[in-house]
Amino acid sequence: MRVNYLAMVIAWAIYQPVFADDLDALNLADSAAPSTVKPRDWNLFIEGMYGNVNLNNDQGSIPIDRLSLDLQVDTALAPELRFYLANRLDLNGQDYQHETVNTLKEVYLSWQMASITALDLGRINQRNGVAMGYNPSDFFKVDALRSVVSIAPSSLRENRLGAGMIRGQYLWESGAITALFAPKLGDQRDSATFALDFGASNPRHRWQIAATQKISDGLAPQWIVFGEQGQSPQVGLNLSLLASDALSVYAEYSGGRSASLFNQSKQIDNPTRFYSRLATGATYTFPANVSVNLEYQYNGAALSKVDWQALGRQPTAYWAYRKHVFSAQDMPTQHAAFAFVTWNDALVADLDLNWMFRHDLVDHSQQSWLEARYHFPRLDLALQWQYQQGSAASVYGALPQQHSLQALVKYFF
Asked: Are 304 and 330 within 8 A, CB to CB?
């Protein structure tokens, strides 16, 4: 369908996985309902979008639109048993052609067996990582996107498929350990509107053990060991430190033996070697509600500058590689830089301004994203602008869209 073209246009524009769940100051498009709404067992919002996409190479422009319904439920079934549900229904449109995609993000039971132990069973969105622009240790991000509705960092991590799993957690005074197992539940992706799509979320047996231990005030590293059927185990490490009242620094790492991303795109599992991935950065908060995040990103399994330039001369292999990298939510080249600036209550109360900038350090292409969002008690109004530039076969210059503008209305029930 032609409407699928738009999904790839937007998706390729924002292939990197991103993180904002623990940075409440960002307050982006898909955050929870405003704090003025009284806490309850459920939250429901409806969002409408209309915009225009200008294509590269003077190919004109196309209108885009979307209508979304998002429901979250968190309720107690018994004193020690809770039920969680998160579901999103999107009607995505391009050039007045539409398709409907439902994403069952989470549905699971949580049993608080004791004050220090818990057991969860069902579809769970397991998110790892302290970085903002690239999350090497977020192992469950692969093939998790069904509908890309926003390039806001929080949206890509929030609006994705969870995996069917059983998860247990044990807590002690200065740390915690979590273990989970996600069995294989499907073989192929299912694009049907209301598909559970276990072929995407649970294509093979996977497991993970994560441990956190407080070392000192403000420093509690997280160690992760992750494994999946037919692959070597991967290790992950998350570090964050509050250096001052205004400055926080962090590093996120993963490493292990695997085939290169290029060989994976050709479904070649060998040879394997040890590859490292890293995201490290800092966030500084200024007195006037302005936060600035800067981040360096590295992916050892991606293509070097020479290999990336050579691949650009092979269109079929190039786009097969780009498609695989997008599905894996990984980086196509080895080095990149990222910046995010947010200004809450900018100029007037309840007006938030956000700017995101990505720069590929291999081919020097770049992407900018700007958002102005005004919060009413139950209503958000937003205007978003996105722009890409670069050479024809670069990370951002190769994308079909050059720039886009869209207006959004979001109502919280």
From this structure: no
Q: What is the dihedral of CA 30, 33, 35, 39, to 10 degrees?
A: -140
Q: How far apart are CA 287 and CA 68, in angstroms?
A: 36
Give the CATH number of the domain where residue 333 resides: 2.40.160.10
Of the candidates 407, 411, 409, the one whose C-alpha atom is nearest the C-alpha of residue 63 is 407
41-42-45 Cα angle (round to 5): 160
- H or E element that contains 152: none
Instruction: With CA atoms as reference, report the closest residue to 391 among 139, 99, 119, 56.
Output: 56
pLDDT at residue number 396 = 96
Q: Give me the helix-helix angle, 3-13 and 315-328, nearest 10°.
A: 70
Predicted confidence (pLDDT) per residue in 308-324, tens digit: 999 999 999 999 999 99
- pLDDT tens-digit series, residues 68-114: 999 999 999 999 999 999 999 999 999 999 999 999 999 999 999 99
pLDDT exceeds cutoff 90 at 152: no
**Alpha-carbon gap, residue 225 to 167, rounded angstroms:** 14
Q: What percent of the chain is predicted at pLDDT more than 90? A: 86
14 pLDDT above the threshold of 60: no
35-to-27, 40, 45, 289, 377 alpha-carbon distances in Å: 11, 12, 14, 17, 9
Range of the domain at 257: 3-412
Domain count, the chain: 1
Q: How far is CA 78 from CA 71, 82, 108, 119, in A?
A: 22, 7, 14, 14
Provide the phi-psi class of 96: left if phi over 0, else alpha when psi is between -120 and 50, else beta. Answer: left
For the record, the structure tokens of 155 come out as: 């949206």
Q: Name which residue leads in pLDDT, 19 or 276.
A: 276
| DSSP for residue 38 | P
Cα distances from 276 to residues 221, 255, 271, 366, in angstroms, run: 18, 4, 16, 24
Token representation of residue 324: 């695989």
Inter-CA distances, 55 with 59, 61, 221, 404, Å: 5, 6, 44, 9
pLDDT at 12 over 70: no
